[in-house]
Fold this sequence. Notes:
Blueprint: H1 9-24, H2 31-52, H3 68-88, H4 94-117, H5 126-146
Helix pairs in contact: 1-5, 3-4, 4-5
Amino acid sequence: MLFPYLFFIPGIISICEFIVFLFQGKKPMKGPLGFILDTINIIGFPALYASVNIPYMSQTVFMIPPFFQFTTLVVTLCIISYFLIRYFSHYLPTVVQIIALCLVGIGIFLNMAMLFREYNIFSFFHVPIILLFIIQIVEKSNSLIKT
């Protein structure tokens, strides 16, 4: 009976991580544990959602058949941009970092739209993604301003 609640643990950890970020100004979980948490929240839960839920049955305009392929492409680009900014930003030129930050911002918009249009248990999993994207935008914007 406890097994379904285990799926919420990474999301709750990310929410707590965001609260700590608000007070300290930097992401507390780094290294392999932070990478695993990011991967579960940003890749694992959307993949679980895509495998369990039929995408065409979603109520959001982004998931109806004319826009589904484009939305999937944009979501994939947002995920790639997040991981590029998070783990390879020192190897990227400033222009590429700014483009990746813009894509992460689009990811926030898409997740907010899906969060407010869906009324099922999977709506919770948009919150950690939004918070992780916000953390990245704030951290990388600050580092770009300092350089």
